[in-house]
C-alpha cells in the first residue's frame, strides 16, 4: 500500500491515534483511564493531536486483531500519522504480531510511540530499545503463562480446584479476600493449607438441592426456593436455573473437581470443553449414590422435551409409541382431561396412525406388574455371575483410602514443617512424593462417563415404595421414580381390539402385557 501521508507543516500538531488495550494477564491490567490519561499527557507535551481513540477492552484478547487493524488502517489511509500506546507491550500480543504490525505502520510512513517509555524511534538506538522492550514484554508474557500452568498442575494434583474461588456450600480456608480485586482471593498462610470445608449452613443447603432435584424438582423451582431463603451465589447474585444446574453439574458437592481432561491434546485448556471429573481433597456433602441418582435424572431430563418434564402424569417421562418412537401425549375425551395417551407423531405430523391407550389402563398395568416384578426378583436366588456391589466396592474403597491416606500424610507433613521439625527442602521432596501418589489414586477414581446403574435386586425397595405410595407420592417424585425404574414404556396398537404395552426396566429386562 503506497504511503498517503501529506506533509505536515512545522508547528502543526501531528495527528495520532490513541490505542488503549487491557491485557488479559492479571499482572498487567492497567485501567483504560490510566492509559488514556498517560497518552493524552504525552501527546500534549510532544505536539501530538489525538484524532481518534481505539479501545480494546476485551480481556480475552479474542477481538484483538480486529481492533489493532483499525488503528493500522487509520495510518495507512492517512487519517493519522502515529499510534500512541501506553507501553510498547500494548501493541502486539506476541513477537510475530509486534513485528508485523510495526512493519505495516512504518511501511505506511507512520510511527509507533509509547507514552511512558522514552524512546526516539528516529534513531537506530531508539529503534533497538523499542525492539528490546517489546521482546521483554513477550518474555514476561511467556513466563507468566508457564507459571500459571505449573501452579494449575500443582493445584489439581493437590485435589484443589484450579482457582481459589469460594464455592457455595463450603468455607474456603487458607485464603483471604484480595483487597485489589473483588471476587478474588490470596493465600493466607496463617490459616493453614488451602482447603474447602463444608459450611455448617450452606453445606446442608447444597445437599438439599441435590436431593430435591433427584426427587423431581426442576432448576427453576430450586432457584426460586434458594432465592427465598435469602442465600446468594458466591458472587452475591440471585440464583437462576442455569446457575443452579451449572453448580450441581460441576459435582463439587459430591467431592469432585471438574478439570481439563489430562489426555486432551489441545493447547488451549482454558477454552476447551473436554472436561473430566476427578476426586478432590474436600469432603462431599452428598453420598456417591445420590450423585449417581442426580446424574441419571440429569441425563433423563436432557432427553425429555420441556412440556413432558413438568408433567404431573406418572408415566410422562417414559411413554412412547411402540410403532414410531414418538412421545405419547395426554388427550382429553369430552370434558375429562388426559383420558387417553395418543401418539404425538400422529397428532403433530400425521407420520403415524392414531395409536392410543387409556391412561388409567396403562397406569393400572404398570403398578400391578411392577409389584409382581419386585416379588419375582426378590424370590430368585442371587445370580452367581451377576457382579454384585460387594465385588465392585472394595477396589473403589481401596483407592479412596489411598487418597485419604495421602491427604492425612500431607497434613502431618505440613504441620511438621510449620513447627520447624523438618527443613523446607525435605518437606518439598516428601510433598512431591505424596502428591504423586495421591494423583495416581485420584486418577484411577476418575468418574465413568455413564452414571453407574444399580444392581437388579437393589431396585426392589424402590419398586415397592412406588407401588405402595402410588397415591400419596408427590406427582413429580412419582414420575421421576417411574422413569428411574422404567426408562421406556412402549405402547402398541394394531387395531381397536389388539393393543399391548412393553415395559423396559432399568435393569435390562422387559415384559409385555395386553392392554
Ligand atoms: Zn482440551
Ligand atoms: Zn406412533
Automatic annotation (TrEMBL):
This is Recombinase family protein. Keywords: DNA recombination, DNA-binding. Residues 186-304 form the Recombinase domain. SMART domains: Resolvase. SUPFAM superfamilies: Resolvase-like (SSF53041). InterPro entries: DNA_bind_recomb_sf (IPR038109), DNA_bind_recombinase_dom (IPR011109), Resolv_N (IPR006119), Resolvase-like_N_sf (IPR036162), SSR_resolvase (IPR050639), Zn_ribbon_recom_dom (IPR025827). CDD domains: Ser_Recombinase. GO terms for molecular function: DNA binding; DNA strand exchange activity.
Amino acid at each position: 500500500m503506497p504511503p498517503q501521508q501529506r506533509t505536515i507543516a512545522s508547528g502543526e500538531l501531528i495527528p495520532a491515534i490513541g490505542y488503549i488495550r487491557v491485557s488479559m494477564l492479571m499482572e498487567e491490567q492497567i485501567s483504560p483511564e490510566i492509559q488514556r490519561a498517560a497518552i493524552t499527557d504525552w501527546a500534549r507535551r510532544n505536539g501530538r493531536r489525538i484524532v481518534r481513540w481505539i479501545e480494546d477492552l476485551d480481556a480475552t484478547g479474542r477481538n484483538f486483531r480486529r481492533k489493532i487493524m483499525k488503528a493500522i488502517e487509520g495510518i495507512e489511509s492517512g487519517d493519522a500519522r502515529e499510534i500512541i500506546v501506553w507501553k510498547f507491550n500494548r501493541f502486539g500480543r506476541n513477537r510475530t504480531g509486534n513485528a508485523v504490525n510495526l512493519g505495516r505502520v512504518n511501511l505506511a510512513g507512520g510511527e509507533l510511540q509509547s507514552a511512558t517509555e522514552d524512546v526516539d524511534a528516529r534513531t537506530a538506538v531508539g529503534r533497538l530499545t523499542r525492539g528490546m522492550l517489546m521482546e521483554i514484554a513477550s518474555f514476561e508474557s511467556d513466563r507468566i503463562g508457564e507459571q500459571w500452568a505449573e501452579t494449575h498442575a500443582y493445584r489439581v494434583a493437590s485435589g484443589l480446584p484450579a482457582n481459589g474461588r469460594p464455592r457455595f456450600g463450603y468455607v474456603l480456608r487458607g485464603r483471604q479476600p484480595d483487597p485489589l480485586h473483588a471476587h478474588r482471593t490470596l493465600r493466607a498462610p496463617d490459616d493453614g493449607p488451602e482447603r474447602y470445608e463444608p459450611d455448617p449452613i450452606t453445606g446442608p443447603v447444597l445437599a438439599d438441592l441435590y436431593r430435591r432435584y433427584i426427587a423431581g424438582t426442576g432448576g427453576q423451582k430450586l432457584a426460586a426456593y434458594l432465592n427465598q431463603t435469602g442465600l446468594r451465589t458466591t458472587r452475591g447474585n440471585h440464583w437462576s436455573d442455569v446457575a443452579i444446574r451449572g453448580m450441581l453439574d460441576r459435582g463439587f458437592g459430591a467431592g469432585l473437581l471438574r478439570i481439563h481432561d489430562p489426555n486432551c491434546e489441545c493447547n488451549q485448556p482454558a477454552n476447551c470443553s473436554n472436561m473430566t471429573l476427578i476426586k478432590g481433597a474436600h469432603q462431599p456433602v452428598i453420598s456417591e449414590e445420590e450423585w449417581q441418582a442426580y446424574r441419571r435424572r440429569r441425563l433423563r431430563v436432557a432427553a425429555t422435551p420441556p412440556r413432558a418434564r413438568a408433567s404431573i402424569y406418572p408415566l410422562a417421562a417414559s411413554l412412547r409409541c411402540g410403532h414410531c418412537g414418538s412421545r405419547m401425549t395426554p388427550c382429553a375425551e369430552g370434558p375429562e382431561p388426559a383420558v387417553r395417551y395418543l401418539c404425538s407423531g400422529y397428532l403433530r405430523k400425521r407420520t403415524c396412525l392414531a395409536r392410543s391407550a387409556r391412561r388409567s389402563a396403562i397406569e393400572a398395568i404398570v403398578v400391578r406388574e411392577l409389584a409382581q416384578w419386585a416379588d419375582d426378583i426378590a424370590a430368585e436366588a442371587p445370580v452367581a455371575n451377576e457382579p454384585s456391589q460387594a465385588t465392585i466396592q472394595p477396589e473403589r474403597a481401596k483407592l479412596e483410602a489411598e487418597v485419604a491416606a495421602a491427604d492425612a500424610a500431607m497434613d502431618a507433613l505440613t504441620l511438621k514443617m510449620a513447627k520447624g521439625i523438618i527443613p523446607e527442602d525435605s518437606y518439598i521432596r516428601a510433598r512431591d512424593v505424596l502428591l504423586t501418589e495421591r494423583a495416581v489414586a485420584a486418577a484411577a477414581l476418575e468418574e465413568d462417563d455413564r452414571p453407574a446403574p444399580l444392581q437388579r435386586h437393589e431396585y426392589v425397595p424402590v419398586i415397592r415404595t412406588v407401588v405402595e405410595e402410588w397415591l400419596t407420592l408427590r406427582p413429580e417424585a412419582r414420575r421421576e421414580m417411574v422413569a428411574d425404574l422404567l426408562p421406556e414404556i412402549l405402547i402398541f396398537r394394531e387395531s381397536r381390539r389388539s393393543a399391548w404395552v412393553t415395559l423396559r426396566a432399568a435393569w435390562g429386562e422387559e415384559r409385555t402385557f395386553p392392554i
